Fold this protein.
Amino acid sequence: MTKLLEQAIAKLKTRPISEQDSIAAMILEEIEDDNRWDESFARSPDLLAKLAGEAMAEHRAGKTQELDPETL
């Protein structure tokens, strides 16, 4: 376990039980979401390469626009 994670858990232990459970649920949900993305990417590397190619072709053809960071 990293020092940062140890610090976070130590601080979390001082919070009310309901808050500890809420934060634990968020962490577990995030880990599961990451796992689903990893599995998706692993199953479809050709599709991802195709989509990336299409995106680059659109960009080169001038069909894209730069995002304004202030509106994100």
